[in-house]
Amino acid sequence: MANNKFLNKKDLAKNKEKNVEKTSDERLYWRAGNMLYPLPVVMVSAVRGDEKPNIITVAWAGTVCSDPAYVSISVRKERFSYDIIKESKEFVINLVTKELVRATDFCGVRSGRDVDKFKEMHLTAIESKYVKAPSIKESPVNIECKVEKIIPLGTHDMFIAKVLGVTVDGKRMDEKGRFELNKSGLVTYSHGEYFELGKKLGKFGFSVSKKKPNRKKQKGGKK
What we know:
Blueprint: H1 9-17, E1 21-22, E2 28-29, E3 39-40, E4 42-46, E5 54-58, E6 61-65, E7 70-76, H2 80-88, E8 90-95, H3 101-109, H4 117-120, E9 125-126, E10 135-136, E11 141-152, E12 156-168, E13 187-190, E14 193-196, H5 215-222
């Protein structure tokens, strides 16, 4: 966001017309809007009957429950995939890596009414285990979902879906059998731009965890 000390009177006047208010500590109040960034950007695959499968890029996606596992995606009614998902009541969320960012952007700006996105972006549609909608082979994680509720909200409708199964790329498992998802170059979406997941800063609970004693120093002190 812009700092108001760099704004002249003319700019401040324009901001006032846009429902922007100046605060005493050089911050700006903006009108209510979506500023919850960054977000995971995903490719959602779906199919209706015997038609060709389609992909829609979604940033308004998230986890809504852990057990049982539920997710949500929000889609505009005018999107080609909206009716496909509404009628089929299922879809697959495919996570995105840096190698897939161009395809991800393409699938968000081109309509399945006009192009076969799998063909245009050289993506491989593979059979899913629990739903008819195909998964994308090039994605490191495929989350198969069954729609249980649709909530009309305004510009978007939210699809609440139960996770039926998850497929992961076996080549991303380490020698100890751990899935190295965070090393796969995952992509996030922030304020109209794509970013690769960056430096690790900590892990869940690190702020209250006790530090383990340095065994090397202890051994050295006994000598």
